[in-house]
Amino acid sequence: MPEVAHPVRAARSKTRPNSDLVVAESGLVTWNLPDHRRAGFRRLRDIVRWGIGIRAPDVLELTKEIEHRIGDLDRVRRLTGTTMFCALVAVQDDTIVYERYAPDFSPRQLHCLQSISKTTLALIVGTLVAAGRIDLASSVKRYLPEIGSGYADATVQQVLDMDVMNDFTEDYADPSSAVYLAEGAMGWRRPPAGHDAPTMREYLAGIKSADVRNPSGECQYKSANTDVLGWLVERVSGRSLRDYLVDIAEAAGIEDTMFVSTDREFMPTLSGGIALTARDLARYGMLFARGGAGINGTVVGSTAFLAAARTNRGTTRPDGFHYSNQLVSNGRWVGHGGYGGQWMLADESARAAVAFFSVLENASASDPEYSLDRVLLAEDIVQLLARRR
Predict the structure, then answer these.
(1) Is residue 219 part of a domain?
(2) Is residue 187 part of a domain?
(3) Residue 102 half-sphere exposure toward CB, CA atoms < 13 A
(4) Residue of 13, 26, 115, 139 marked active site
């Protein structure tokens, strides 16, 4: 007799939500609660649902010659002596001139850069602008016809400068803010019950605006801008963001892994998903101090585009610095901060870069006075180093 096919029955296995990705009553995901955040920033690659790791075949060798006057700077003493502090590394040319770590941190420890990740687009977009592949005055819809009203009529330059008005909100004191809700697409939290996580492209296309113009001239900081630029880069160039990140990691000569969180289609989350060691962040920062030039003759950025970030006014931030081309600047240095206490600064004239990691453990992970102190700490260091040249 012929065998009778029996229907396969789904197993009724017992499951539970992944504890790291559960949203607490406060509206924050578990790993980002104040008592978990310090560990969470170090465990990003073990927490998020999707990601990639990149290693460089050749490492930029850094000698070590400590400039002890850096340790005597008031802000360096104060900020490295707090309970928030994790790591501080300053590099000039190919030399570590200052390095300090918290007792619970180490030179080989990865740490989430958060929004410092955005600076990768300053390199990538700059190369495409220099090659004539992107027109900064063109609207986003020219390159992404399917984009929603939140970005369709904005120019690429507006997106680069955080100069767009739409319904994406970034208020870290508000757990219902879009910046937190986007974590479902990023794989940083579980999606709502009964729903699949959207892709990043699906999420970005759903952002809306009645008028993208920003009449105030003030920085309208929206992390979604960076991911729109990443999508645009892939469309214009025909290359994946992953391949660009490989180029950047190799040009910087990083020693350890560059971890990058992604969406479920493995599109890198460049608005905030990169993790590096402090030394490797300083190596990466030196790409900006060298005008986009990497090791072994590689080039991953445009000197003119980086210079424009310093000289174009872009939009004005509350701290008085300006935001242009996905970078913060005072007209001399370029840099960027990251949610929770991170900062990277690069000064071309001093040929120096500063990497600073810390973790604020208040509810919003933010403090305007402390945020300004981070910037001024790095500025004090590069000013001292500039005088040595």
Answers:
(1) no
(2) no
(3) 19
(4) 115
DSSP string, 321-378: -EEETTEEESSS-EEEEETTTEEEEEETTTTEEEEEEE---STTS--HHHHHHHHHHH
Q: Cα–chain-centroid distance for residue 337?
A: 8
- Residue 67 phi, psi dihedral angles, 5° rounding: -95, 100
Q: What whole-number distance in Å separates Cα of residue 154 and Cα of residue 189?
A: 30
Residues 295 and 21: their CA atoms lie apart, in Å, by: 38
pLDDT at position 329? 98
Rounded Cα–Cα distance for residues 235 and 26 (Å) = 38
Domain that holds residue 128: 25-133+240-388
What total of structural domains would you count in the chain? 1
Phi and psi at 75, nearest 5°, equal: -70, -35
Q: Identify the CA nearest to 32 among candidates 345, 375, 374, 341.
A: 341
Measured between alpha carbons, how far is 134 from 214 in angstroms, rounded to an integer? 22
Please indicate, yes or no, if residue 212 is contained in any of the structural domains. no
Q: Token digits for 42?
A: 């170090």
In this prediction, residue 7 carries a pLDDT of 72
Instruction: Provide the pLDDT for residue 111.
Output: 98
* pLDDT above 80: residue 68: yes
Distance CA 278, CA 255 (A): 11
CA distances from 222 to 118, 172, 178, 307, 326 (A): 11, 12, 9, 23, 11
What distance in Å separates the CA atoms of residue 240 and residue 52, rounded to the nearest whole number?
13
Domain for residue 172, yes or no? no
Q: Which tens digit of pLDDT belongs to each residue from 208-234?
A: 999 999 999 999 999 999 999 999 999
329 labelled catalytic: no
Locate all alpha helices (DSSP H) within 198-321, ordered by sequence: 200-205, 223-237, 241-252, 278-289, 303-311
Instruction: Provide the CATH number for the domain around residue 93.
Output: 3.40.710.10
Model confidence at 110: pLDDT above 70: yes
Tokens of 224: 């979604």
